[in-house]
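Field: COMPLEX_INPUT
Field: COMPONENT_COUNT = four
Field: RESIDUE_TOTAL = 684
Field: MODE = joint
Values follow.
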Amino acid sequence: MFKSYTIKDIAKALGLSTSTVSRALNGSYEIGAETKKLVLEYAEKVNYRPNPIALSLKEQRSRSIGVVVCEVANNYFSQAINGIESIAYSSGYHVIITQTHESAAREAANVQHLLSRHVDGLLIALSAETTDTSEFKFLHSKGVPIVFFDRIAEGIDTHRITVNNFKAAFEATEQLIIAGFSKIANISSTPNLLNTRERFEGYRAALQKHGLTLLPEFVKYCYQGGMVVGEVEHALQELMSLPEKPDAIIATNDRITTTCLPILKKMGFSIPSDVALTGFTNSEVAESFAPPLTVVRQPAFMMGQLATETLIKAIESKHPLYESISQQFDTQLIIRDSSLKS
Amino acid sequence: MFKSYTIKDIAKALGLSTSTVSRALNGSYEIGAETKKLVLEYAEKVNYRPNPIALSLKEQRSRSIGVVVCEVANNYFSQAINGIESIAYSSGYHVIITQTHESAAREAANVQHLLSRHVDGLLIALSAETTDTSEFKFLHSKGVPIVFFDRIAEGIDTHRITVNNFKAAFEATEQLIIAGFSKIANISSTPNLLNTRERFEGYRAALQKHGLTLLPEFVKYCYQGGMVVGEVEHALQELMSLPEKPDAIIATNDRITTTCLPILKKMGFSIPSDVALTGFTNSEVAESFAPPLTVVRQPAFMMGQLATETLIKAIESKHPLYESISQQFDTQLIIRDSSLKS
DNA sequence: TTGAAAGCGCTAACAG
DNA sequence: CTGTTAGCGCTTTCAA
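Field: COMPLEX_OUTPUT
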């Protein structure tokens, strides 16, 4: 298919050597102005594009970055990828996206795949199933540039882009309390993930500040991060068949939040009169829900951008960046009817 | 960073030539069982991975496919990408995703970028702004494998994966009519896109079948595909300030549909009593809307899968596939409150 | 200022 | 059965 011009073609056409053409194209100083102009004009004419594969082989870099997320079809991640793509593109990098579907095995395979593709760096949000991060530790120690975002690998001193999860959950929980709810349940992704635990701590702290006791039966985990609807359904069933039902629920991840609402309604509860609901989600349409949903929104696009900037900086610095960059964004709590006493 | 083992390393370590190692690794028949075992074991031990960049250079193919869509953060496309990724991954291809943000210039740049990256084929859903498809025609004539999905380039005999847009819009419109609405407006993406026009024709045909006249002032286009909220807002404002307002609206693309609902509510209209709403969207949460939204849903995941299978088949067939494959899926009309007389 | 040659990792035609 | 060699496209010493 579609053979493009090579340096050799140009050299032949112009009766020069490939090295001369190469130098002309790269604006080397050791080149005659005459020759240079000749080459550039011809290259322009035939629409010459250097072969990035050959360049990669030569330079031992691929100008591509690998992205590992659970799913693209997720409000948070699709927005983050949008940010990643915007920066990568304008910096001349390609983005190779892989999905784990929350499987640790798939994650490991993806990382291997990307590495074997010689990506120059990795942008990772851990899968829900991941507990063993030794491979990442190993790669990091070998100097592979890695930036974690949203879902961080603990115990590794890498760059990390996150939000203030504690504060986010604290504020959301406190808002429920202030609105008059006192029996607040927490439904989360797996506690494997640091962000789940941090959000849980925020929840706990808000209860404590307001003198509410944390009931263990009010804390539910979805070990597959809400990818499987049945998991969320099960958690909600348990919660809502308690002798002492919660009067409010806080859901701490995107997928879980958007599935909680229809399930609760299907179970016959009305929101917020039977049970209030607040959730972490980047859904653009939470306002259109019945009832309009109170959400914790993360600056996904900016997080994707910053993660990528950080990664590219790490890739392009000749000397590995020994100090890791950690950047924490604030979230936005958007209060709507679902978390207000009706 | 992270130097991996090469064939040369293995050859040196084992005192063989690189070609012998290569043959052993590739299971060539002309190789001693002894040597082969030796090489394979050693390769296994040091976790040898062939360098795909070198392979690409050699084979003149990159084992990657380029995807061009308007935005990842779009229900339909993120689901389609999910399907694309699933097939590509299991066939050993990488997926490089680019976004046009509905700009024709950006689209052209992306295609160039992907081509210069020597992707083996292209999966494309046109941008809303695209009118000139001569570049695609050119590429196609040069034998570049291309599959269009959802948003097709007309006048090029390429593979295309679509839905039956006419039927989808016809059914959705007819449902509104049967439900008792008679002043039905149509709000679409740009008529540049074939699918917009086909959906419009379905709308028109349904009106005609039921003896309703099509009012030109009831047909609105969003030339940026609904990416800009103001555009949708403007269309709705014009529609709803007509002396004779529509009593129902059909929105024929994902982005437009999900923005119509909050805008209409903000304008003070209640749905469906003031105006009914039906829309094309793959949103997972349309059921949770207030009111639950009637939608036309496309089999996005399957479309992504089939588009990718088709593309890979085209890439891997030695002789170009002269007959183009066109596959048309049916959509699903999910009727909810938003399109029923209250 | 330009050219020849080597090398990035790999495969394959050609010898032996 | 195995080794030598050339070449994919490009950059970069080293010579001239």
